[in-house]
Amino acid sequence: MTVIPAHPAPLVSRRQLGAALRQHRADADLSLKEVADRLLCSPSKISRIESAQRNISARDVRDLMAIYRITDPDVQARLTRLAEQSREALWWAPYNLDPAYARLIGLEGSATAIYEYQLGVVPGLLQTLEYTASIVSAWTDDPDAVRQASEVRQKRQESIGRDTELAFVIDESVFHRSLGETTMHGQIRRLIELSESPRITFQVLPFSAGTHQGVVSGFEILRFADPAAADVVAGMSDVVYLEGVVRPSYLDQADEVEGYLRSFTSLQTKALDRQDTLSFLKARLQH
Fold this sequence. Notes:
With about 290 residues, the protein is α/β, with parallel strands linked by helices. It contains 11 helices and 6 strands. It has 2 domains: about 10-85, lambda repressor-like DNA-binding domains (434 Repressor (Amino-terminal Domain)); about 95-285, Endonuclease, Chain A. Strand 2 (about 165-170), helix 9 (about 180-195) and strand 3 form a beta-alpha-beta unit. About 30% of the residues are buried. GO terms for molecular function: DNA binding.
């Protein structure tokens, strides 16, 4: 079982630290070039630190706090702690994952809520090992690659925080896809088991719902603690993850995220409720 960290995952800590340093630079009324000149580096380095595209050394953190004249001991301690956490080892590092996928894992591990809609497959956070292997085999016939992908997905599920709110809507078409009776029945039994958990909301969107806002693509919304109620350094914006055929993408503009939240709420309204979803799943076991 993967150990659940008591603090945000390293990638999230890096993102929080970058956002905090950007705000402190703005408060100090300094440009990227001005800071870079004082730190004896390129402006791109400061920009990449602020956008969480690169890690930061303890020395750079100390130097930036001096440049920004951050003297509050509590703020200094928080920034230093985030820097330390951002450099901690990642459990997925040995797998050499695509950076975009690694980012998703890091964000999921620190989200306070995850809302996901899928119209083609069962969401990764709910998949059995056998189901994952069947899906991954569409991309590769390398048994080692399939095994690794299944293993990573299993650990990804285990790394979700125990208090994270989870809500899923799955299109009915997912359950009509032929993956082998044993594989699909095993997956359905897993979903029935998970649907009984009080922290998981799981719904099936039936064909009878007609046209809806999810006919274009699936998506995953990752929500974080309200910055107004959290540590000023720890506030993070919500993110939408879109898994493309070639490469995935992320949306973090407030209006974009809000649009997807509205769509997800609409899909939940059209989907079967908990009891009807459970009845649907049990009926599919008879096929």
